[in-house]
Design brief:
Helix content is 35%, strand content 30%. By secondary structure, it is α+β, with helices and mostly antiparallel strands. It has one domain (15-34, 44-212): Glutamine Phosphoribosylpyrophosphate, subunit 1, domain 1. 40% of the residues are buried.
Length: 223
């Protein structure tokens, strides 16, 4: 029982900072790069948590690394199969419902190490419309109309977005705000840091618009 509790605590404490913003001409999704093991060890300083899974969808993950990697592969494969069978491309909403269904089923099946992953999924439909969804580890599904954040850095991000987010922001303005949100988180959240990745999603496609390292600098102190 003690080992089970240790494992659960370790999984739940894996930290991150995710942010996604709806803009007038699309949306932006961003994240930091730090992977934390338990509560005291940085396991990876260069892990990209926001990634395209095909040519019209981007996902961001918070939680277990193994669960996120597995879910990403499964979702990409299932969407491709659905497209081949139906002869039409799945919508963003259909993709989000797939993620939610997998999450709902996975966490309710007996397992020594259940997948505990929160997901943002954003993309553009064939009609050019863009959509953003937040899927909880329990399978809950929310259609995001403005902005959302997740991970251990969420509390620092939401405070900034409450004051600075504006509807009908341009993609460029959204990307700048996303960077500021991740920077605000990495200044105070011990589970976030080391880099910033930002993707822009519009009807023209997916583009990585920010690729930054956050590097520690040591200076001599003059007193």
């Amino acid at each position: 029982m003690e080992m089970d509790n240790e494992l659960k605590n370790s999984i739940l404490k894996t930290g991150t900072s995710l942010v996604a913003l709806m803009c007038k001409d699309g949306l932006v999704m961003a994240s930091d790069r730090q992977v934390t093991g338990g509560s005291s060890l940085v396991m990876d300083k260069d892990f990209q948590k926001t990634n395209p899974i095909n040519d019209y969808l981007v996902v961001s993950w918070a939680g277990q690394v193994s669960g996120a990697q597995r879910l990403s592969k499964v979702v990409a494969a299932e969407l491709k199969l659905k497209e081949l069978r139906s002869k039409s491309r799945p919508t963003v909403k259909q993709a989000a419902n797939l993620v939610a269904t997998i999450a709902y089923s996975g966490i309710r099946q007996p397992s020594m190490v259940p997948d505990i992953v929160d997901t943002f999924i954003g993309g553009f439909n064939e009609d050019g419309s863009t959509e953003l969804y937040k899927i909880g580890a329990d399978g809950s599904l929310i259609n995001v109309k403005d902005y959302c954040a997740d991970g251990s850095g969420m509390v620092y991000i939401l405070g900034l977005l409450e004051r600075q987010y504006k509807k009908n922001m341009s993609i460029e303005e959204g990307a700048k705000l996303a960077v500021e949100a991740i920077k605000s988180s990495t200044q105070r959240d011990v589970y976030s840091g080391y880099g910033i990745d930002v993707f822009a999603i519009t009807k023209e496609g997916i583009k990585k618009v920010v690729d930054q390292d956050i590097v520690s600098e040591y200076r001599e102190t003059k007193r």
